[in-house]
Amino acid sequence: MKGPCVLLDRDGTIIEDGHYLADPDGVRLLPGAAEGLRRLVALGWRLVVVSNQSGLARGLISPEALQAVNGRMEALLAREGVALEGIFFCPHGPDEGCRCRKPKTGLVVAAAKALGFDPSRSVVIGDKMSDIGLGLNLGVPSLLVRTGYGRETERRERPLWLFAVDDLVGAALAIGSAEDFARRKR
User: Fold this and answer.
1) Number of Cβ atoms within 10 Å of the Cβ of 132
2) pLDDT tens digits for range 6-47
3) 180 catalytic, yes or no?
4) Which residues, at least 6 apart from 186, have a Cβ–Cβ distance to it below 8 Å?
5) Is 17 a catalytic residue?
6) How, if at all, do strands 163-165 and 142-145 pair?
7) What is the domain extent for residue 54?
8) Residue 107: which CATH number?
9) pLDDT tens-digit profile, the chain (186 residues)
């Protein structure tokens, strides 16, 4: 198995949350996103996106539009020297009872199988409780970023995350300095 993975939310964590973003021209990296991701890679972490995309089930986004948005995000990151190992998304609505919608673990199981990593050595980073819940369900640490819905989540929810940080640079700094994360990489 290759090294451990950081499991990242997409909207509000890496890119601005465009509310069912279907236009690749609307993709904007959040400040510090590329730098934080580069730092995580330098620390030995693989980057995998796991994202709920219920706009597909709601008919608000076509599969082609989602692919174009994801492609644009990857192109913007590549310009900044960042490559993602993979992007995995749940296409279901919140009431469909699927196994892949965060905070359930189906996306991570699929990613682990496809990419060959041990989910128990992962870390989750996101801006919503569904991201934090994913970490809890996997039994791994979660970091809340205050981008996207993160500040609202921090104000409204019980702190079940290991760290709350301003952005992905803060996440990389926290991961780089905490011994628990160093042990996960072994």
Assistant:
1) 28
2) 999 999 999 999 989 999 999 999 999 999 999 999 999 999
3) no
4) none
5) no
6) parallel
7) 5-184
8) 3.40.50.1000
9) 577 899 999 999 999 999 899 999 999 999 999 999 999 999 999 999 999 999 999 999 999 999 999 999 999 999 999 999 999 999 999 999 999 999 999 999 999 999 999 999 999 999 999 999 999 999 999 999 999 999 999 999 999 999 999 999 999 999 998 766 666 655
- Cα dist. 28→10, 12, 13, 125, 167 in Å? 11, 10, 11, 18, 15
**Residue 178 pLDDT:** 79
Q: One of 9, 127, 131, 167 is an active-site residue; which one? A: 9
CB 67 within 8 A of CB 27: no
Measured in residues, the chain has a length of 186
Q: Encoding tokens for residue 62? A: 């076509």
Asked if 47 and 40 touch (Cβ cutoff 8 Å), the reply is: yes
Residue 19's region, left for phi above 0, alpha for psi from -120 to 50, else beta, is left
- Whether the CA torsion 125, 102, 78, 3 is positive or negative: it is positive
Before 103, cis peptide (omega within 30)? Answer: yes
Six token digits for residue 184: 């996960």
- Expressed in percent and rounded to 5, the helix, strand and coil fractions of the chain are 40, 15, 45
- Looking at the structure of the chain, the number of domains it has is 1
